[in-house]
Amino acid sequence: MGLPTGFVDLQVNGFLGVDFSSPTLTEADFVRACRALLARGTAAFLPTLITSPRDTYARNLPLMAEVMVRAEFRGRLLGFHLEGPFISREPGVVGAHNPAYVCDPDVALLEQLLDWAGGQVRLLTLAAELPGADDLARCAVERGIAVSVGHSFFTTADLDRLAQAGATALTHLGNGLPNMLPRHDNPLWVGLAHDAYTAMVIADGHHLPAPVLKTAVRVKGADRLIVVSDASPVAGLPPGHYRFLGNDAILEPSGRFHNPEKQCLVGSAATLAQCMAHLASLGELTAEALDQVGRINPLRLITQT
Predict the structure, then answer these.
(1) What pLDDT score does 4 carry?
(2) pLDDT digits over 109-145, tens only?
(3) 14 domain residue, yes or no
(4) CATH number of the domain that residue 172 is part of
(5) What does the alpha-carbon distance between residue 54 and residue 116 come to, in Å, rounded to a whole number?
(6) For the residues 206-213, what does the mean pLDDT come to?
(7) 234-244: average pLDDT
(8) How far does Cα 287 stand from its chain's mean position?
């Protein structure tokens, strides 16, 4: 099967009430969610597992890997994105992930995760400042996995070191950070300024205000920008109260999905097609450039290794 001709989403946590990181995920629900998402303007995507207990990885990765190889999904389910467990535990930086399940960089654990996934991991998000992060990145790159820095309060020195180890991207730049940051010395400016990294951004209209999204587009340019949805399991569902990742969260009619107590977003309620439509509405990119950030760059990131 050839390359997808539509938008490619590198970060999908679930859809239509199906949570890919749920300890009760079933094959039938996973298939139903994938079919529904693929019917709504996403040509291909990476099912994403967030920071989870080891038992959940051991259960869900093989279950989903078996579905991925079916003829129906070849060229459409492109592999896994592991968003964790090797991220920061710090409040704000950990985001909606459960800090109890966060792990220090551990090559042996990564190899176990890859085995459970049947060798189908394509993208790994980790925190650059953690001891051993560079060794973990090298291990992943050697196995053909793209490495992205996220849920991380990184410095320029951290990004320099991880770039030497093979990291090439930044996971949802501008999110997975505390609500209050130092004015100048913070990961948003550092990530925008670092030329070695492609920035993944959530363009749902809620994760990044329009001025921030425009700035990312203008600084990184179409060559070093990737749009993701970060779709949560409530994507495709009506507004209401939901419990997700241990969060009592509200999906507003506007599409904003948030935990009022933690004052943080809990993933997106948008599809990639909706994100791309919002980005197009800002008038920053041509049709050709939109194809670059929504299809070409995502494919390039997960195949360049």
Answers:
(1) 59
(2) 999 999 999 999 999 999 999 999 999 999 999 999 9
(3) yes
(4) 3.20.20.140
(5) 11
(6) 96
(7) 92
(8) 24
Examine residue 1 and state whether it is found in any structural domain, yes or no.
Answer: no
Token couple for 129: 């400042």
Q: Give the residue numbers annotated as catalytic, written as ranges.
A: 230
- Reply yes or no on whether the pLDDT at 206 is more than 80: yes
pLDDT at 305: 47
Count of the separate structural domains present in the chain: 1
Determine the structural domain holding residue 58 and report its residue range. 7-303
Quick one: how far is CA 282 from the chain centroid? 22
Place of tokens 């050697």: 142
**Cβ-based neighbour number of residue 255 at 10 Å:** 17
Look up the pTM and report it. 0.96
Residue 295, both tokens: 């299809």
